Amino acid sequence: MKRFENKVVLVTGGGSGLGRASALQVAREGAKLVLVDLNKDGLEESKKEILSVAPEAEVEVVEADVADQKEVEKFVQYTVDKFGKIDGFFNNAGVEGKQSETENYGIDEFNRVVSINLNGVFYGMKYVLKVMKEQGFGSIVNTASVGGIRGIGNQSGYAASKHGVVGLTRNSGVEYGQYGVSIKAIAPGAIMTPMVEGSLKQIGGENWEEVGKEFVSVNPMKRFGKPEEIGYLVAFLLSDQADFINAAVVPIDGGQSYKY
C-alpha cells in the first residue's frame, strides 16, 4: 500500500519549487492533489510533471492568492467539495522579499512579505484546521525557514514572518493534537529553487553564482539542498508514519542551524 493511497493533499505554492517537488513525491505515493498558486502557467507545468510520473493521479489546480482570506476559504472549500476531506496540507506558499538592513527596509515591502508568508499561513491553517477537527484526523506541514529559528541578516520581513510561522505551528500543535491533528513545520536552509535563485540575482546580478558559493559557505555540507530532498521530508511528515510528531520544527539545512 502506498502511503497516500486514497488520501487528499492540498499544496499551496504548488506551481514551482518546494511545492512542486513535494506534490510530485506524494503523487508518486498515491495522493489526490489540489495545487494552489498565483502562477497559472506554473500550476499547469506542475500538473504536467505529476501526470508524467503518476499517470493515474487526480490533480486539480486552483489559481489563488494565499494573502487573500476569502480566496483561501474558497480553495479549502473547493478541496472538500471535490474530494470530501483533506488528509494533508502543505502550507507552503511564500516569498523572500527584498534585501535590506532593517532601517532601510520598506514598510510596504515588510507588509507585503508578512501578508503572504505569515497571514497566508494563518489563513490556511484557520480554514483547514476546521475541516480536520471535524474529521478527527489530518496533518499540516508549514514552511518556515532557517530564518525562522535564527537571524540571517538583511531580510527583516522574511525573518519576522518565518519566526511567526514557527510560533503558529507550535501553538496550534498544542491546541489541535487532542483532535487527532498533527502540525509541524520544516525549516529549510539554502535550497536551489527559483525563489532562491532570484534572491541571489538580486544581490549579485550577473555574478549571482559566485554569491551562491558564499551563500552556502555557512552550511557545513557546502552545497545547496535539492527541492526533491524537501519533498521526501514533507511526504514523511504528512504521512501516518509521522503522526506523533506534533508542534515541532524540523530543520533541513545541511547543519546550518547548528553551526554556531
UniProtKB/TrEMBL annotation:
One GO molecular-function entry: oxidoreductase activity
Entry annotated with the keyword Ligase: no
Keyword Transmembrane helix: no
Taxonomy, superkingdom: Bacteria
Gene Ontology biological process terms in this record: bile acid metabolic process
UniProt keywords, alphabetically: NAD, Oxidoreductase
Pfam families in alphabetical order: adh_short_C2 (PF13561)
InterPro entries given in the database record: KR_dom, NAD(P)-bd_dom_sf, SDR_fam
The Ketoreductase domain, residue ranges: 7-189
TM regions (residue ranges): none
PANTHER family: DEHYDROGENASES, SHORT CHAIN, ESTRADIOL 17-BETA-DEHYDROGENASE 8-RELATED
Family, as annotated: Belongs to the short-chain dehydrogenases/reductases (SDR) family.
Protein name per its UniProtKB record: SDR family oxidoreductase
Species, as recorded: Exobacillus caeni
